[in-house]
Amino acid sequence: MVIRVYIASSSGSTAIKKKQQDVLGFLEANKIGFEEKDIAANEENRKWMRENVPENNRPATGYPLPPQIFNESQYRGDYDAFFEARENNAVYAFLGLTAPPGSKV
């Protein structure tokens, strides 16, 4: 299983950049393997992300914003869902992964 994080490398929003760095930094620090998918540099990534975020998780207007998190092709959530899982020590469950022995999350 591969965690895929859809990001925008050239986002003009500092809030989006911070959220992306927060997710990627957490995954790296906890040695959770992932693929970064850039929606700014790759039209196919952007199209795939937009089509695969479920209707009920999309904003009322516009498109879903990065970061968006998937396990393979299964949608896991956006930054707010990730943040809530991290606060509740439930990141592995959020990502659809089995927590390694002795881990807190």
From TrEMBL:
Q: Which GO terms describe its cellular component?
A: cytosol; nucleus; plasma membrane
Q: Which Gene3D superfamilies match?
A: Glutaredoxin (3.40.30.10)
Main location per the UniProt record: membrane
Where does the source fall among the domains of life?
Eukaryota
Localization (cell): Cell membrane; Cytoplasm, Cytosol
| Pfam families xref list | SH3BGR
- Keyword Protein biosynthesis annotated: no
Molecular function per GO:
SH3 domain binding
CDD domains xref list: GRX_SH3BGR (cd03030)
What keywords is this UniProt entry annotated with?
Answer: Cell membrane, Cytoplasm, Membrane, SH3-binding
| InterPro entries linked to this entry | Glut_rich_SH3-bd, SH3BGR, Thioredoxin-like_sf
Q: How does it assemble?
A: Monomer. Interacts with PFN1/Profilin-1. Interacts with ERBB2. Interacts with ATG12. Interacts with BECN1. Interacts with translating ribosomes.
Protein family per UniProt: Belongs to the SH3BGR family.
What's its job?
Appears to function as an adapter protein that bridges proteins together or proteins with mRNAs. May function as a ubiquitin ligase-substrate adapter. Additionally, associates with translating cytoplasmic ribosomes and may promote the expression of specific mRNAs.
**Per its record, how is this protein called by name?**
SH3 domain-binding glutamic acid-rich-like protein
